[in-house]
Amino acid sequence: MFFGFDMAKNYTKKKPFICNYVPSIKVKFNQTQRKGIFNMKKLLLVIAILILPLFAHSQVTKYKAVFTINFIRYIGWPDEAKKGDFVIGVLKDSEFAEFLKSLAKGRKFGFQDVVVKEFSSVDEITYCQVLYIPKTVNLSKNAGKIIDKLGGKNTLIITEKEGATKYGSMINFVIRDNKLKFEVHDENAARLGLQISSKLGNMASAIKL
Asked: Whole-prediction pTM value?
């Protein structure tokens, strides 16, 4: 009893009304409409197949740019390379250059401003502390000329093609087991007066040659 009110007798808890009926709506398509929907699905599938590799390529390019901007900290640079701006040259790869520019903006290496310079051909190459050469460039054919254009010293050559270390590459990006790795070639670096830190070669992504 509560204030003369018998709750057990007079209060009944009512269950809420729940409607379980969901109307079934059927939409019928004629043959022409079904064919159109099927063709649209095929088109979307084709677009996805085309876009995904481009997206993956773009992501890999970004990672390569991040690696490249950080490689410079693991190189023993001679005094001559520490004068003026610190220039990273990019040969015939505007997409990579744009990623690199966004990373280099406002950045300094020691007292040097980091500058990204694009070269549209081998003939345009001038001295730079780092030169990035994409796989679209025939390195076996142009290696000698590239080194001559660089002055034959103090330039870290970075590539992304299988076998590139045979032609003077010091750091070469490769794909192993669907993972981005980089080969490190100390002897090629030493020929141009550079020393690669053992810390770089000991990284998980490094392949020591």
From this structure: 0.73
Please tell me the distance from the alpha carbon of residue 50 to that of residue 166, in angstroms, as a whole number.
Answer: 34
Q: How far is CA 106 from CA 7, 95, 112, 115, in A?
A: 77, 19, 11, 9
The answer to whether residue 197 sits within a structural domain is: yes
Tokens of 76: 């023993």
| CA–CA gap between residue 183 and residue 161 (Å, rounded) | 10
Residue 160 lies in a domain: yes
Q: Measured between alpha carbons, how far is 58 from 87 in angstroms, rounded to an integer?
A: 23
* pLDDT tens digits, 144-201: 999 999 998 899 999 999 999 999 999 999 998 888 999 999 999 999 999 999 999 8
147 with 125: CB under 8 angstroms?
Answer: no
Per the structure, the count of domains in the chain is: 1
- CB 162 within 8 Å of CB 182: no
Q: In angstroms, rounded to a whole number, what is the distance separating the alpha carbons of residues 33 and 39?
A: 10
